[in-house]
Design brief:
This protein is mainly α. The protein has seven helices and three strands, in the order H-H-H-H-H-H-E-E-E-H. Strand 1 and strand 2 form a beta hairpin. It is rod-shaped, with a radius of gyration of 32 Å.
């Protein structure tokens, strides 16, 4: 975080912006911590630069654009634009689709097992009454159930 001398004379809104920007910029020496907590020389320099930019009235978007131009997209702790969409939208969507596919497969297996269990020893269970059929009819019905419930 910027030192006390650096933030003197800033309004509360400017201090809030300064804190926000420092929490979203990565230290370019190792890209493991943001500049608000990193203790490298480059992080200290960036904190002073950001404070100066805020003092000059630049917005957060202006500051981020400047550092993205210098260091690339990796300088941002949280990606923006298309990369942000990819990082935060695609994984939950894929997980939801996979869950739906798994539910469908399990339903099909259950439906097939239930239908095949209903045909037992030549008896077809309909409603609450048992209807007997020949073994040929039962086998034809089993084949039809297998075909209809196959993937």
């Amino acid at each position: 975080m910027a030192s006390v001398e650096d933030v003197s004379g800033l309004t509360q809104g400017q201090r809030d912006l300064l804190t926000h920007v420092e929490r979203l910029l990565m230290a370019p020496c190792c890209y493991t911590q943001t500049i608000d907590v990193h203790m490298s020389e480059i992080a200290e320099t960036m904190r002073r630069e950001v404070t100066q930019m805020v003092r000059q009235g630049q917005t957060g978007a202006d500051i981020f654009s400047h550092y993205k131009a210098v260091y690339g997209e990796q300088i941002l702790a949280v990606p923006d634009g298309r990369l942000g969409t990819t990082a935060f939208v695609i994984p939950p969507t894929v997980a939801a689709l996979a869950t739906g596919a798994l539910a469908y497969v399990l339903y099909r297996f259950h439906a097939r097992k239930s239908a095949l269990m209903a045909i037992k020893d030549g008896a077809v269970l309909k409603s609450s009454a048992d209807v007997t059929c020949t073994s040929e009819q039962a086998e034809a019905l089993r084949a039809r159930i297998r075909a209809e419930t196959a993937f």
